[in-house]
Each structure stands twice: as structure tokens, then as C-alpha cells.
Amino acid sequence: MAAAAKNRADRVLSFRMRIGLTMILVMLMVLGGRLFHVQGLDPAGHAQAAVSERLRSVPLPAHRGDILDAQDRVLATSVDRYDLVVDQQVVDDFVRRDESTQLREEVPVETGIAELSEVLDMDIETLTERVIGEDRYSVVARSLIPQESEQATEIGIPGLYAEPVSERSYPSGSVAGSIIGFMGSDGPLEGVEAAQDEALSGTDGERIFEVGGDGIRIPVATFEEIPAEDGQDIRLTIDQDLQWFAQEAIAKKSNQYNAAWGNATVVDLTSGEILAMADSETVDPSDPGSSDELFRRPLALTQAFEPGSTGKAITFAMALEEGTLNPTDSFTVDNRYEIDGQTISDATRHPTLDMTAAGIFARSYNTGTVMIGSEVPEDTRYDYMQQVGIGEAIDIGVGAETSGELRPPEEWDARQHLTTQFGQGYTTSVLHNLQTFQAMTNGGVSVPLRVIDSYIDADGTEHPMETEAEERIFSEETSEQMLRMFEGVVDYGTATDAAVAGYRVGGKTGIAEAAGASGGFDGHTQSFIGVAPLDDPKYLVSVTVHRPQGYWRDWEVTSTFREIMSYVLSSYDVAPSGAKSEAYDGFEGENQDQPW
Amino acid sequence: MSAVAHSMPPAVHGSLAHSHSLPARPEGDTSESRVAVLRALPKLKQRQKSLIGAVIALLALALSLVLAVNIHVANSQYEVVQLQNEQRTLEQSNQALTEQVQHLESPQALSSAAVGLGMVMPAEAAAFDIGSGEVTGSAEAADNGDRPSSFVATPAAPGADAAAPLNVSESVTGAPSGILGSGALNTLINPPSGQNGQQDSVQTRSEFSSTELNGGTIPAPSFD
């Protein structure tokens, strides 16, 4: 009977237990369902809102790339600096441990500020203004070196802390300054820094994590890290030493004639690499405000001027190419020439001479040039000038290029039909002139000029800069003939000072009239573009001086050319050949020594 | 149904729990209190003791292991912080030194250093062919007074006060459109006032008295 009772009790008990368990299960299910509803389905968006409250995103700054010269010397780099920032609302008298006595001392704010002014070398009033106030964020000092910023924060003023910033440093100052460019307060402003900003700055990374109410990161929650992609280094074709040498040389020449500006540019004519682009005054990228605005950009790119007699080279080259001229053709040249109702005269009153085309070129006679140039139809002339790039902008990767000005023949006035044959009536920049000469001296093949050599990734992979294709403009024969005519200029023509002992050198001088603001000519541009060594042409050097003062006969830029070209030839290990000149004879007959 | 305690015979190790040595039941006694009682407990007591002991020991070991790991981690964190500080200091001093080196390697600094050592600009150089012995050109001795020009200013030393960043907006207002601003146009039209109108800074070498030089170009090392 007891067993039966026990069984019944058991059953009742287990029944109650079952009911209890079921109730608990039901409640758990309700709870679970509610949890799913709130967290999973989330119709009111509370869960999402909570996540976004917790989520923090910290940018990982990318390291900006360096700018290097052709031999990997650093032209521009980033350095770590600190901005001293203070939360003014927290600034108050504070307590710190004295170093010598190891006792805690109370320090009033004024003493702290006095010590800070010593460390920062600022006067106390300015400092007090910046430190005392109601702002939550006030900058006390910018761009401190780490040592200074440590000293400043060690003083112990509450609320004063150092924010790391990255600053650009230019170790060589104004050497290649306008090419490198500089930074403004918001970002790069000019030069390679600005034009290649995308490649240099890379991509910032991001670190995403969740923080709890106390501000500490929740270890098991979301943690994503996208690493920063550092910027690429850029290697230029500029040679820092040559750039400095050329800057010194052209500054000396511009200073000698008190010119508005001067420029010396060196180009490797087989590859189109610009080895130096030197201005008489150049901006120092660490202090761009102190430099005149004109010199903040490379003058070889921004300044368009009438090239003058260096523009005769293209006229002769196209006459040779078209077959209307041979270098030894003879002409009778007077110092005045009348054609189409216009009178063309030469710079000097020379007697009537029987000369060859090479002689006319060597002595840079306008009259002879017009005789030769008129044989070529105007449209053909215009076509050649366009082919070498006159009138079109040249992009070398620095930005700020000018296109010069070349109007089509229909728009030329009565004189321009003639003056364009000897380099007046259109404008070009230094790079346009070099590009023209490069085509003539490189066997007739035009290679686009560039200043950027390659991009180097953070891991060392190099990406050479892509350039446009080479273009053949003149034949090899024309190029050889032009080289010999250039040699004549240096041998017995207007540029005998340009000769470099031991090498065969050629080139072309130019004095052009420069137009003033009012429209008339009120100045000159003196230039010389030379090539060496003529046995195997490698380097082009162009020297230009704009608006020199004084008497025009006194001006010469060939000495600067000689300095720079000798430097180039010796530092790039070009052996002197000591070979004899192959210039054409300038004059008919035996007597080559004719009066000027 | 309570278990009935009986006087126990000596334990036998390893034997299965058996109920044995039951007292003889009187005939006809059907009370349930006579149900056999398992005597497993006394036999297992020792084993359980060691088992419990082992478990406790294991627990203690695990806890002490965790404690040791935590202590190590905490100590290492101090080390990590210290090393991070060291690394930061080293990186900063490395960067400062690199900046100094770059400054000293700049062409202007090299030129000044060369002038300070008494070097001068070279004159004409000749070249000779090593194979044939031919001399090309004619060599000239350098002029003692021919110093390099220094139109290009020496860059600011690293760590010097930084210049204020260029505020372009100031110069933009009122500037004519085109590739150049008003400042540049001004320079082109008006006479130059910048460097081009001034003399270059003359480089001087350190002055030595003639007794110090003793006919040479730099003083000889001395004992004082």
C-alpha cells in the first residue's frame, strides 16, 4: 500500500515538476524570442544605434613619399614634428614633483607659463593669451622638434599636450626649389608636390573597433584594421649637384646684367631627361613666402618670350629637310633686304658678302635667313613649327606649363610672314626651344622632355614614368647637316666664346626683342642653346637672360654656357675627343676671315 | 527504508562491492529493514581521498599557472611600454641625425665647407688618354683667389624656427587671371629689386695669421 502511495506521490510530484519545467521553458522561450526580436530583427533600430555608439574609427595616416634626385639624394622628405595644444578649460595651478628635492611642490600657472616661454622662446604675453581662456582646443606652438615638445610637456601644465604632425623638410633649400614645389597650410601648392600629390600621399588606413562605456576597447567585439598604403617616392631626372651649379652660374650672369630673370636648363637629348632647370632666383620650399611670386614656379615652364635668332634653326632645318637648301649654297648677303614691300635689316652694318648658308647661320644674318626661308611655303613652315611642339603646352609632370603663342599663317600681319622666319612674331618657352633643338640634334627624332624618372613603391618596386612615343621629324641627314652648321656658329660665328677645349661644340645664339606691357618692344631676351659633343650628341644646354640692362653689344651668355657645359661633360665622364671641327665654310672663296 | 548498520568485517581491497556476511534472517521476517546494504563507501574512502586530493591539486596547479601567466603578462607589459618609449626616442634621434646629415650633404653646405678648408674653383683641365698617352687640351693652375659664388642661400638648419605657411588667399585677391599672379607681373614690368640687383655674399675662409700659416695654407697642428 505504501508502494502504491509512493507511486502516486511520485507521479504527482513529477507532474508538478513537469508543469514547473514547462512554465520555465515557456518563459525562457518568451525571453529568447524577445531577445531575437530586439537584437536580431531590430525593428526600432535600437541595436544598430547601440553598435554605432560603440563603434570608433581611427585613421591610420599614410606616410608621404620622398622626392629624390636622379642619384637618389633626398630633395624632399617628411619629418615628425609636434604641435603643442592646450585645453584651456583645464589649465590651472598644478602640483608636481621637484626633481632635486623629490618633494611635491605647488606650481602656480604663471610660473608654468614662464618656464614654457623659456623652452619655446616666446614672450610671456603671447603665451598667456594662448594658454589662458575658455577654448577647449588652442594651439600654443606649431612644428616643434620632439626634444622641445618633450621639454614643454614635462613642465606639467595640465591640459597641455603634444599632437604629432608630419611636416615636409627640404634639406637642400632652394636647389630645384621651384621644381619640387612646396606645401601650404592645407596641402601642396606648387611643383611636383602638388602635381604628383596623388602618388605621393598614398591612402590612409583605418582601424575600426568598439569601445565600452568607460572608453576601453572591447576585446571580443569588431576589430578591423585596414593598413595604410604609404605614398610612392618619386625619383626626378634632376641632378642635384648640376642643378646647384647651374643655379649659381645663371644667378651670376643675371646679376651681372641686372636682368629680370635668367634660366639655364640642361637636357639629355637622347632620352629627353631634364638634368637641371635652374632659375636666377629660386623659391626655398621651406619658406615660400619670402620669395617673389615669379620665382615660385620654374621659369622655363611659365615664361613665354620671342625666341629671336635661335628660331632661325628651325627655318634652316626645314629648308634642308624640304630640299630647298644645301648648307654650301652660296648667297650674296647685304645688310638690308627688301621683300614683299618689307625691309629686313641685320643687327650690324656689314658689307655685302658672298656667303654660304652655313655662314649666314653662323653670323645670324636676318637678311640671309629670309632669303632662305622664303623658299619654303608658309604652310609648310607653320606645319614644322607645330610638329616640334611650338604653340602647344608641354607637360613634364610639374604642372604650370605655358603653351607659348603661335598663330596660323592666315592671322600673320605683313611683317610676321618674315619675322617668324627668324624667331620674332611668336612666343615660346625655354622648354619649347629645347624641344625644337632636341629634334634637330637627336638624328631628327623628337623625344618628349620629362622631369620625372620613376615612381618607387614603399616596398621598393620601381615604376618608370610612361612617356609618349618618339616621333621622327627630320631625317638623319638633315640632323647631321644641322649639327655641322651649329658647329660653325661656335667656330667662327657669333658664339666663339662657347667653345669648350677638347670637345666639338655647336649651338645658336639669339637676341630677341621683348614686347613690353604697352605693346611695343622695350627690352631684349638674350639666349644661347648649345649641344656637345658633336661626335655623338648627348647634352643640350640652354642659357636665357630676359631683359638685361645696358648696351646690347656687351651682352653675352656663352661664358655661362661654357661653364655649365664643361661641368656637365666632365662630371658625366664624356671623354674629350680633340677632333677637328667639321663645320662648313662660311664664305665663298679662300678668305674665310671676313669683316663683321 | 533506512540502511541498517552492521558491524563490519575487515575491508578487502579491490573486491567488488558485495553484500556479504548478512546476518541470518529469522524465518518469516519480511521487514524491509533487512534489505542488503551496500558497503562500498568504506572501501572507496581512500581512493576518493586521493582522487579528491588529485583534483584539488590539479585545480591549484591550474590556478597557479593562470596566476603565473598573468604575472608574466603584466611584467611584460611594463617592459613593452618601456621598450616602446625607447624605440620612440631612438627613432626621434635617428630622424634628427638624418636631418643633420642631409643638411650637411646639401650642395651649399658642401661648398661652404670646401671654402672653409681653403679650396678654390678649378681652372681649365686637360685630359689624357691612358692607353695612348695623348693629352687633350691644356691644363691651367687654379687661381688662389677664385672662390665659388654663393647666390643660392644655405638652407635653414633642421630644428630652426619654421616659417609661417604660405597663405595663398592673401595674394589671390585682385590678381589678374592667367598663369601668373600680380606679383609676378610686377617683377616682369618693374626693375628687379631682388637678388639679381645685389652682390653675391662673399665667401671668406677662416683668417689665419702669417706666423700660423708659416708659408702654407693651413696652420700646422700644435701642442697648445
Structure description:
The complex is a heterodimer of chains A (596) and B (224). With 596 residues, chain A is α+β, with helices and mostly antiparallel strands. Among the domains of chain A are: 80-88 and 104-148 and 160-170, no CATH class; 240-283 and 295-571, DD-peptidase/beta-lactamase superfamily (Beta-lactamase). Chain A contains 18 helices and 23 strands. In chain A, strands 2, 3, 6, 7, 10, 18 and 19 form a 7-stranded mixed beta sheet that branches. A 5-stranded antiparallel beta sheet of chain A has the order 12-11-23-22-21, sandwiched between helices. The longest helix of chain A is centred in the first third of the chain and has 40 residues, at 2-41. Chain A is elongated. Helix content of chain B is 42%, strand content 2%. Chain B has 5 helices and 2 strands. Chain B has helices spanning 40-105, 107-116, 168-172, 182-189, 210-213; strands at 127-128, 135-136. A two-stranded antiparallel sheet of chain B has the order 1-2. In chain B, strand 1 and strand 2 (135-136) form a beta hairpin.
